[in-house]
Specification:
The complex is a heterodimer of chains A (about 450) and B (about 200). Chain A is an alpha+beta fold and about 450 residues long. Chain A has helices at about 5-20, 30-35, 60-65, 70, 80-90, 100-105, 120-150, 160-180, 185-195, 200-215, 215-225, 230, 360-370, 375-385, 400-410, 435-440; strands at about 240-245, 250, 255, 270, 280-290, 295-310, 315-320, 330, 345-355, 385-395. In chain A, the strands form 2 sheets. In chain A, strands 3-10-9-5-6-8 form a 6-stranded mixed beta sheet. Chain A has a 4-stranded antiparallel beta sheet with strand order 2-1-4-7, with no helix packed on it. In chain A, helix 1 (about 5-20) runs parallel beside helix 6 and helix 7 (about 120-150) runs antiparallel to helix 8. The longest helix of chain A has about 35 residues, at about 120-150. The radius of gyration of chain A is 36 Å and the shape is extended. The two termini of chain A are about 70 Å apart. Chain B has about 200 residues and is mainly α. Chain B has helices at about 1-10, 20-30, 30-35, 40-45, 55-65, 80-90, 105-145, 160-165, 175-180. In chain B, helix 4 crosses helix 5 (about 55-65) and helix 7 packs across helix 8. Chain B is elongated. The chains are: A alpha+beta (about 450), B mainly alpha (about 200).
């Protein structure tokens, strides 16, 4: 028995007995009364109180409570070592600390919103009144939008243009109100923090976007700037959806240098969009640092291309290896590799949103891009009128596994090593100068001990 | 003062008290202080008078035995480095330490906080509205004055002009009443000091 359990045992026991007799009305400072009812006092050497059967005098309570061994074997209330082991074996590990579970055995399990704290309840009342007001405003606004939509434009001042403008701003206000209705709800906050929020509802999408805009968005924009993605791959770009990348179920930070054996299999993406509705996207993985020795420059290469992939706020999982080979995959995955001596390769992953209702022709994509080399994201985007929305990036360098990976995928060039061309100095050669250089001849043999450091020569 | 600093500081793990050790060695014997050995353990060995073995050997034997000598726990009286203390005093925390709450308590705190913010905002808006209303009603009253003629044979706008007059307000040793008293929300706790006399 752990120390905390040993400490909590007398308290837990007394509280449990109170529960039997008094039904939670008086949980604290009942010791004296309990002593007087001598039937139930327990000495320290009796087994733990949970295993003592409840007194038969309160028959109703007995029927209400399950047999102790059964009730204890729940992950919320198990405190004994053997119970925990059994729960682990069952696959439902105990929840929280043992101290918490001891407390849970005697808790009334009051729902959160009914917790009897005065200030909290007052606060809830204030918030609920506000919510009621907001709901009224929302329904009113929706009715106004409907009325405006039904009126023909020639009856309104300003005509069609003014009407559309008004409609747009009113709809924007409606969306704002929808968020304002629920923004102060602690239950909503809790559900979102637990990851249980329904992303089809505007409030959860709003919270998710707020969270994303906090750190991940800043990080990804910084990477775009630092790694010069913006002038190199696209002239301008601002991400609007959250793209997370997982190699072998491990999340990678943007710009991380990934081992070539790990990036041999395509990553799984988790793409969270923040606007409602289903849409089709294309996914591009490209390498923008393919060295070309002939032209002494770098080129680009397409490593993966898929199109017509459906995406919605609730459908975020996007494993690149699981896309439909017949209807979605245009260019299959080519593992990331960097030849020896070449600088790191930036492997960028792009999510491009297609226009509503637009599907790309796979045959044409295959024809255009199956050559992989010389892929230009900008021309792809312009040709098919796509809008880039999501971005993530990893880097790859030559490592000990790259040669094997290249051999497995029949990629030539594993034996090539890139080296910087030697640039010779334009200055003419000079004789060694200085006191030491002058005393290298055998005449100065006695000084050789002191003439080792010659200016401009490496140490011997 | 020092106690509070120590309290501030208790969360940081502090470095070993090297200064204290060196002081011990220098106090113990001038002979041993000539032999400088870097570790604190060796220093304590040197100060021990009744050991026949040389300190280095004794240490080697201890490690060889592997008895797992417990590290000497830092006593309660050990002060953190005075330099760090000074640093701490001269750079007080700008941000208060984070509230550490359980889940439910944090959520309750959040709820109350949100309600408080909401209430404040509503109150502010209400006050602004009230002020705007007052201003507007005053404005319309002035407008009404401006458009009325009279009393008697006076022409239109006379009353307005008279009402707007600030005669004697900016005289020497004179100024508008609004400047003399701070304009406050609530009446003073003591509205008039009746006992006041000029000395």
């Amino acid at each position: 028995m752990s120390t905390c359990q040993r400490v909590a045992r007398p308290i837990a026991r007394s509280m449990r007995q109170d529960r039997v007799t008094l039904g939670f009305t008086r949980t604290f400072s009942q010791t004296v009364i309990r002593r007087d009812e001598a039937t139930k006092t327990t000495t320290t050497d009796t087994p733990p109180a949970s295993q003592v059967p409840p007194p038969s005098s309160t028959a109703a309570d007995v029927t209400k409570e399950a047999p102790p061994s059964q009730s204890r074997l729940t992950p919320d209330t198990a405190t004994q070592y053997w119970e925990e082991m059994r729960l682990f074996k069952k696959g439902t590990p105990p929840v929280g600390s043992r101290r918490r579970r001891v407390a849970m055995q005697t808790s009334e399990n009051v729902p959160f919103e009914l917790m009897p704290y005065q200030c909290f309840q007052e606060a809830r009342r204030v918030l609920q009144e506000d919510r009621k007001e907001k709901l009224q405003a929302l329904s009113l606004e929706i009715a106004r939008v409907k009325r405006l939509e039904e009126t023909p434009a020639d009856q309104l001042p300003g005509g069609e243009v003014k009407k559309n403008m008004r409609l747009r701003s009113m709809k924007k206000w409606v969306e704002e109100l929808k968020i304002l209705v629920d923004i102060n709800d602690p239950i909503v906050k809790r559900r979102f923090e637990d990851g249980l929020g329904d992303m089809d509802k505007p409030i959860y999408r709003h919270l998710a976007e707020q969270k994303w805009r906090g750190y991940p968005f800043r990080l990804i924009t910084q990477r775009i700037e630092q790694l010069n993605v913006v002038p190199d791959v696209l002239p301008k770009f601002e991400p609007t959806v959250d793209v997370q990348m997982f190699f072998r179920q491990r999340k990678t930070t943007p710009g991380e240098i990934i081992d070539s054996r790990i990036s041999e299999k395509p990553p799984a993406l988790k793409v969270q969009v923040f606007n409602p509705g289903e849409r089709l996207v294309s996914i591009v993985v490209m390498d923008s640092d393919v060295p070309n020795a002939e032209t002494d420059s770098f080129e680009r290469r397409c490593h993966y291309l898929a199109a017509n992939v459906p995406l919605s706020p609730n459908n975020t999982s996007l494993p690149l290896s699981k896309v439909n080979k017949d209807t979605q995959l245009a260019v299959p995955w080519l593992p990331a590799f960097a030849q020896k001596g070449a600088p790191y390769h930036r492997m960028s992953i792009w999510i491009l949103e297609q226009k509503p209702g637009q599907t790309l022709d796979l045959a044409k994509l295959k024809e255009l891009y199956s050559g992989r080399d010389g892929f230009s994201l900008k021309s792809f985007k312009d040709k098919f009128t796509l809008s880039p929305v999501g971005f993530n990036i990893f880097r790859s360098v030559w490592d000990e596994g790259t040669a094997d990976v290249m051999e497995r995928w029949n990629i030539p060039g594993a034996d090539v090593e890139f080296k910087h061309a030697r640039v010779h100095s334009l200055k003419p050669e000079r004789k060694a100068r200085g006191w030491e250089a002058k005393r290298q001849k055998p005449k100065y043999k006695s000084l050789w001990k002191y003439t080792k450091r010659i200016r401009g020569m490496p140490r011997r | 003062m020092a106690a509070s600093v120590r309290g501030l500081f208790s969360r940081l793990s502090l470095t070993t008290p090297t200064i204290a050790c060196q002081r011990v060695s220098s106090n113990a014997s001038p002979v041993s202080s000539t032999i400088r050995s870097p570790t604190a353990a060796a220093l304590t060995q040197q100060t021990r008078p009744f050991s026949s073995t040389s300190p280095a050997f004794a240490k080697a034997a201890k490690t060889a035995k592997g008895s797992g000598k417990k590290k000497k726990k830092k006593g309660k009286g050990d002060e953190p480095d005075p330099r760090i203390q000074n640093l701490k005093v001269s750079n007080p925390r700008k941000v208060p330490a984070p509230l550490r709450f359980g889940r439910n308590r944090a959520l309750r705190h959040w709820t109350i906080h949100r309600a408080w913010l909401l209430w404040q905002r509503k109150e502010r808006e209400r006050q602004e509205k009230e002020l705007a209303r007052l201003y507007k009603s005053m404005h319309s009253a002035c407008e009404e004055l401006r458009q009325t003629s009279g009393p008697g044979l006076e022409e239109e706008g006379y009353l307005y002009r008279v009402a707007m007059e600030k005669k004697g307000v900016f005289k020497h040793n004179n100024f508008p009443m609004e400047y003399a008293r701070p304009q406050v929300e609530t009446p003073a706790r003591e509205a008039w000091n009746h006992g006041w006399t000029r000395e």
